[in-house]
Write a structure and sequence with these properties.
Layout (H helix, E strand, L loop, with lengths): L24 H18 L3 H5 L3 H13 L18 H11 L5 H12 L1 H6 L2 H12 L5 E4 L15 E4 L5 E12 L6 E8 L3 E8 L5 E3 L13 E12 L3 E2 L5 H35 L3 E2 L2 E2 L4 H32 L9 H11 L1 H25 L10 H9 L9 H13 L19 H25 L7 H28 L4 H32 L5 H8 L7 H15 L5
The structure holds flavin-adenine dinucleotide.
């Protein structure tokens, strides 16, 4: 049984968390290959890609495939590598260094290919997947419509079986479809007989399929985004994906992984921004000094390091949770992918919270690193300026921040009525007792506030969005901070003296900020519930000794300036 949402109920054993320190040599090699591809192959042509040279984008996509970067998630019998989620996330993270190009690529390997991997028949996979892993055909995903975005099931595109029973005729339109301009295969959601939400694999050259003009976007100029229009477009009935009326499962399960991948991409962008910021801080002089010597700039670098550490820890923690369960499944069994989806579906709350956490960390860090650049950060041509524009949409697609927060809260609130199982064991050094106590207090508050919300609102809790959003923020901070603390405590068991200090510094900084954010959310939640008795309680349960905070910030800033990049 999937153990998703378990972090709300009990402490995770320190030995059970997967962290970037656990990457294998194979993981590290893939990361290096991907980063090298981004720096050597994409950076020199970034301007041409930004000008929408889609022939070049396609050439680079094929190059990416030749390096094996499109094979990660696909099964071996169709030319894939079927690697674990940690590898998949690491490649996505490193692809983020390829700037705007990363969307074209990860859209193909993510929501472009995953529906086929998880739901395709052997014939469909044989026909399309083999070519997709080689970059010979590029995928796109058509869920959103002009009238239905967040409300994806409100789609109006219809599919009607022809009299001879050989084709479905698709009529309707899909909005904002990434890669549409050059994609060869679209996963399209339409309602059979106007009722049954169903997925179809639609080839680009299908008669009746046409594209709207390229959208003029705020950022991601090098990616293609168009409307895709279907006018009685005949799709062979063999191209129905999954089952009639089960399209929602495909749409939502694929989005779970899509969200998770987007979290990893945001981690990459956050680190990229930090590298840009620290390098600039080492170059720019004002008042006769390098700006990196000012406490104000150092604090930004330290805070950015801590945020990146929290986001990164959350992504790979979730990768480890999923890999742990997925590795127990028999890859040769006929229902392997059905079982995979069940596991992933069990972690829908974690996928959503990782997306919210990482996209918001990315936004904050990129904005602060632009600030480090002063006026130059606002001028086109600086990487940070492009990143600032490109990042914005991350809080909108793959489910908006609001929709994902609502999902996190509604999923987790179902669990608070369940009595917590006994706490996990695990050997922690005494020096971590304070931060461990903080986590215990945060978890107790989550359970207590959740129970109160359920008691007070009963069946209407689903409609009390302000409460749900606040509750989601509490849960996000708990998941993130627990990931950070477990990772740092585990790493310190083996780290050198220098690294030990850095892990402790970053964990303290994350604890300080995480606690602040947690309490702000808890205060909102308690106030919305008019439960003032919870206010002193939440403070009493979450003590933190942060006397060495300034020293921790300076230590992280100094190390970041020295390395001119993210130091973990
Ligand atoms: C550059 C780009 C690329 C994209 N690529 C793709 C793609 O490849 N495939 C695809 O299918 N889609 C794609 N999308 C669409 C994207 O997923 C949607 O824009 C997104 O899901 C939001 O839908 P919407 O724009 O209709 O906003 P709406 O759903 O209209 O939302 C507007 C606001 O209302 C809020 N809101 C809506 N419903 C609720 C609710 N129930 N409770 C609380 N708040 C709510 C939202 O959070 C948001 O703040 C892309 C979008 C962009 C901009």
């Amino acid at each position: 049984m999937a153990r998703g949402g378990g972090f709300m109920l009990q402490e995770t054993d320190i030995h059970d968390i997967f962290t970037p320190e656990d990457f294998t040599d194979e993981h590290r090699e893939m990361a290096r290959t991907t980063e090298r591809f981004a720096v050597e192959e994409i950076w020199p042509v970034n301007d041409r890609i930004e000008e929408k040279d889609f022939d070049l984008v396609l050439e680079k996509l094929r190059q990416c495939a030749e390096l094996g970067l499109m094979m990660i998630d696909a099964p071996e019998e169709y030319g894939g590598l079927h690697l674990d989620k940690a590898a998949s996330m690491l490649v996505s993270e490193k692809l983020a260094w390829s700037r705007g190009f990363s969307l074209s690529c990860t859209n193909h390997t993510g929501i472009g290919m995953l529906p086929l991997i998880y739901y395709g028949t052997p014939e469909q996979k044989e026909r399309y997947l083999k070519k997709m892993v080689k970059g010979e055909i590029i995928g796109a995903y058509g869920l959103t419509e002009p009238g239905s975005g967040s409300d994806a099931l409100g789609a109006r595109t219809v599919a009607t079986l022809t009299d001879d029973g050989k084709h479905y005729l698709l009529t309707g339109s899909k909005q904002f479809i990434t890669n549409a301009g050059f994609a060869d295969l679209f996963t399209v959601f339409a309602k059979v007989d106007k009722k049954h939400f169903t997925a179809f694999l639609v080839e680009r050259n299908t008669p009746g399929l046409s594209l709207g003009p390229e959208e003029k976007k705020m950022g991601l100029h090098g990616s293609s985004t168009c409307q895709v229009i279907f006018d009685a477009a005949p799709v062979p009935k063999e191209n129905l994906l999954g089952e009639i009326g089960k399209g929602h499962k495909i749409a939502f399960n694929v989005l779970n992984v899509g969200r998770f991948k987007l979290g990893a991409i945001c981690v990459g962008q956050t680190k990229f921004a930090l590298a840009e910021g620290s390098r600039y801080a080492n170059e720019r002089k004002q008042f006769g000094r390098l700006i990196g010597s000012f406490g104000a700039i150092q604090e930004k670098l330290a805070d950015a390091t801590a945020l990146a550490f929290a986001a990164e820890s959350a992504v790979y923690r979730l990768a480890g949770l999923l890999d742990g369960e997925l590795s127990e499944l028999d890859r040769n069994s006929a229902d392997y992918y059905t079982l995979c989806q069940k596991v992933i579906e069990g972690y829908a709350a974690e996928c959503a919270l990782v997306k919210v956490l990482c996209t918001e960390v990315g936004a904050q860090v990129i904005s602060e690193m632009l600030q480090v650049h002063g006026g130059y950060g606002y001028i086109a041509g600086h990487a940070i300026e492009q990143m600032y524009r490109d990042e914005r949409v991350h809080r909108i697609f793959e489910g908006t921040s609001e929709i994902n927060r609502l999902l996190v809260a509604s999923r987790l609130l179902r669990q608070v009525a369940v009595p917590p199982p006994p706490a996990a064991s695990g050997v922690w050094e005494n020096s971590w007792a304070g931060q461990r106590q903080l986590l215990t207090g945060m978890r107790e508050c989550c359970l207590l506030f959740g129970k109160r919300a359920r008691q007070q609102c009963g069946d209407t809790l689903d409609k009390e969005q302000e409460i749900l959003l606040a509750y989601a923020d509490m849960a996000i901070q708990l998941f993130a901070l627990e990931g950070v603390t477990l990772r740092a405590a585990k790493a310190c068991q083996k780290a050198s003296a220098v690294k030990d200090e850095q892990f402790r510094a970053v964990a303290l900084l994350c604890a300080f900020t995480g606690r602040q954010r947690f309490l702000a959310a808890a205060e909102r939640c308690a106030s919305f519930l008019a439960s003032e008795d919870l206010l002193p309680l939440m403070v009493a349960k979450t003590p933190l000794a942060a006397g060495s905070l300034l020293a921790a910030k300076r230590l992280l800033a100094t190390a970041t300036l020295q390395a001119e990049k993210y130091i973990f």
